[in-house]
Amino acid sequence: MQEIWTVLGLALLPAVGNLAGGLIAEFTGTPKARLNKALHAASGIVLAVVSIEIMPGALSVLSGWAVGVAFGLGGIAYIVIEAAVDRVQQSQGQTSNASRGIWMIYIAVSIDLFSDGLLIGTGSAVALSMAVVLALGQVLADAPEGYATIANMKEKEVPRTQRMMLSALFFIPVLSAAIVAYYLLRNQSEALQMTGLVFAAGLLTVAAVEDMLNEAHETAGDTHGSIVAFIGGFVLFTFVSAGLGS
């Protein structure tokens, strides 16, 4: 019983990093150029999570066919989520691109945090030390996403109370994923665990490429600084991962 509380404590760290980034955006200026760079950095981090943390381990356990199918199903799942959001907004008369952009960015970050929880929960099934490494690595990685999410909502004039409530709700996906992974995956085969991670990779990749970057381009025109931010996000997560021995 004590171990699950340790895992949940570790799973809170990515959400805390996300919240810290959001608070910076909440109480400082959020010019469009900075938001553009933050979204690029967050996208680079997400792609680093997929390529550095998930894929190498998956390919060492699963066949290329299995990886392709799991990744594809994850991408399709994101399309289903996107369609559901559009349907709900249409039923409520929220058909503007601004409204849709807010919620798809929020869902993208929620999916990333869910993946963080899955990584931590699954890592704890192998060794608690692995869960610690994954949790510490995600703290810095999620800060730009939190900043970008709150800055985006400020730019779209979402009320502060609603912004803070949504930011607080980011704790739900990471904790729920850690619980699911801990109880359902800890006694399963390594192949099944890796299949779940690759499925999450499909979700994350579509979120980063189709929604985070698209929102960045709509917020402000890209500059060389935007490219540097994207590269910097990828490199930052790679260095953090390598430095912590992930």
Automatic annotation (TrEMBL):
UniProt superkingdom: Bacteria
Transmembrane parts of this sequence: 6-26, 38-56, 62-81, 102-120, 164-185, 191-213, 225-244
Keyword Membrane: yes
Keyword Nucleotide-binding attributed: no
Keywords, alphabetical: Membrane, Transmembrane, Transmembrane helix
Protein name: Peptidoglycan-binding protein
Organism this protein belongs to: Vreelandella sulfidaeris
